[in-house]
Amino acid sequence: MIITIASVKGGTGKSLIASLISSVVNNALFIDCDPQGTLSIYFEPDSGYQKENLYTLLSGSKEESLYSTNGNFIIPSDIRLSEVKNTKTRQKAILDISKKFDITIIDTIGAISPLLELAISVSDLILCPVLPDKFSFIGIDHLEMVMKKCNKDNLKIIPNRFKKFSFKHKEILNLLKSKYEVMPFISDKQIYHEAASSRIKLKKIKNFLYYGVVNNAK
Ligand SMILES: Nc1ncnc2c1ncn2[C@@H]1O[C@H](COP(=O)(O)OP(=O)(O)O)[C@@H](O)[C@H]1O
Ligand SMILES: [Mg+2]
Fold first, then answer.
1. What is the model's pLDDT at position 69?
2. pLDDT at res. 128
3. Which of 16, 36, 133, 162 to mutate to test the pocket of ligand 1 (most atoms within 8 A of CB)?
4. How far does residue 129's CA lie from ligand 1's centre (Å)?
5. What is the distance in A from the centroid of ligand 1 to the CA of 11?
6. Domain locations in the chain?
7. Which of the residues 68, 118, 126, 193 has the least number of beta carbons within 10 Å of its own beta carbon?
8. Which are the contacts of 59, defined by CB distance < 8 A and separation ≥ 6?
């Protein structure tokens, strides 16, 4: 099962959700398909740039690009990923390496690009974090256009940074639910950010991600 976390907007919580998922799974593969490399930094805060990475894998290198860390595996990012086009050979490279794992999570670039299309093309499920603002809806439409181009239609929305007692947020949530398959929302809490960066395991978010995302996706 390959799950891609995607939104054509930046800052919606893609990398945060990927890193939180890494605290609830074991033996899963994480692929950092964002040239900015946020997820790679989260996994390997001290080691920085890796010579063998997603870019070299997609360029046909047979060298090991997989790094073991905290019970999971990461294929790190590279700035040159921004040049990568979506081809069958590159799709196969990702599919082949993912076959060794029950779950692969791909973190993506927050913009419409061949790189995003590549990630979507290999995915079984797309998770789209959405912030509580009206512009997010435009982003979902754009993501659906990219998915259609890649012949994919399995989309689930994760409302992120919603406030439980906000009337406006509730309205947006209901609107989302009327149009899309929507997962339980993630509230706006600094602690999630800290949980991700310090690998603190929070029971509530852990349960949501495990039962809501991982198990649901199986
Ligand atoms: N639910 C949340 N509560 C608090 N901070 C959040 C939440 N979701 C995201 N953030 C913060 O917002 C910023 C952008 O999130 P990030 O995961 O990097 O977005 P993306 O990968 O979509 O660009 C980060 O500083 C992150 O910690
Ligand atoms: Mg990111």
1. 84
2. 97
3. 16
4. 10
5. 6
6. 2-217
7. 68
8. none
The span from the CA of 183 to the CA of 177, in Å, is 9
Q: What is the pLDDT of residues 97-138, one digit of tens each?
A: 999 999 999 999 999 999 999 999 999 999 999 999 878 888
Q: For residue 156, which amino acid is it?
A: K
Taking CA atoms only, the protein residue closest to ligand 1 atom 20 is: 11
Does residue 71 line the site of ligand 1, with CB under 6 A?
no
Q: Is the pLDDT of residue 170 over 80?
A: yes
- Can you tell me whether residue 125 is helix, strand or coil? strand
2-217 homologous superfamily? P-loop containing nucleotide triphosphate hydrolases (3.40.50.300)
C-alpha 51 – ligand 1 centre gap (Å): 27
Query: Structure tokens of 109?
Result: 């670039």
- Residue with CA nearest ligand 1 atom 25: 193
Query: 209: buried, middle or exposed (CB in 10 Å: 19+, 13-18, 0-12)?
Result: buried
- What is the whole-number distance in angstroms between the Cα of residue 21 and the centre of ligand 2? 14
Question: Ligand 1, from 33, 193, 199: best to mutate by most atoms within 8 Å of Cβ?
Answer: 193
**Global confidence as pTM:** 0.93
Are 211 and 217 spatial neighbours (Cβ–Cβ below 8 Å)? no
pLDDT exceeds 80 at position 17: yes
